[in-house]
């Protein structure tokens, strides 16, 4: 019997009619998708006062992790700017540091934030904890180079979308457990948090073509985890299995009502509250996975981006005399 599911927002549904949706994700399809180049970042930067440079940082086993650094006006600021460490989406099997980069670049424009985007290694070539380790080492580099970047190390926000949102959550857990560096906030946009794939929303979005279905999600997790059994999966890779969500920085989580990750994201926010933490949660009616990244012009997308921007503005500029 087909499981009923929330409808996609009518405006988004009309926009999706022109998009070729995937019916499956397998090694052959993944290879084809990886051959599609990212949109040139220069087109996003044209006409904007944004400096861009490329650096690499050392990873596990002598690997070099590429980072893209975007700074307001092209030069480090004299006073400490906020910093966003950005992790891209792509199911941990595709994408690069320029994927969805328009989202954090909006925060550069609004808040003067320095944006550092991580080109973490992808599964299945680099599975297990490698992707999250790459992101954590990038965070350490940001803290160590705060003066050079012109940032305030007390205002580092870890953020990501989809797989990148899951990696951001894993990095935040890792930083909490290791005691460094401090993270001011985590922004988790439709995050991929739970390898178990057992929620109601996971079952609702199974079968048929889609932006990201249960079956595609299973493929991504298999690529990352290989043959690991549930009890062997590290919480830094699948944050939903973390036993303790206390001591986390203030958190923003959003998702659409019409997507696989809806229920695991709601549960994660609830567990942060249960542990005494602060989280803001938005579930956008009719939103499919990644709706505002694909169609930022849609009304529901504008609302989602505006809500994120408002929250981040409050986090980065707390009311005088109070603290987050």
Strand order of the largest sheet: 1-2-4-3-5-6-7-8
State the CATH topology.
Rossmann fold
Report the span from N to C terminus.
Answer: 47 Å
Q: Structural class, from helix and strand content? A: alpha/beta
Number of strands: 8
Task: Using the coordinates above, name the CATH class.
Answer: Alpha Beta
Radius of gyration: 19 Å
Strand content: 15-25%
Domain count, please report it. Answer: 1
Ranges with pLDDT <50 over ≥5 residues?
none
CATH superfamily: Alpha/Beta hydrolase fold, catalytic domain
Mean pLDDT, nearest integer? 94
If helices are DSSP runs of H or I spanning 4 or more residues, what is the number of helices?
12
CATH arch. level architecture: 3-Layer(aba) Sandwich
How is the biggest beta sheet arranged?
8 strands, mixed
Please give the share of residues in helix. 25-40%
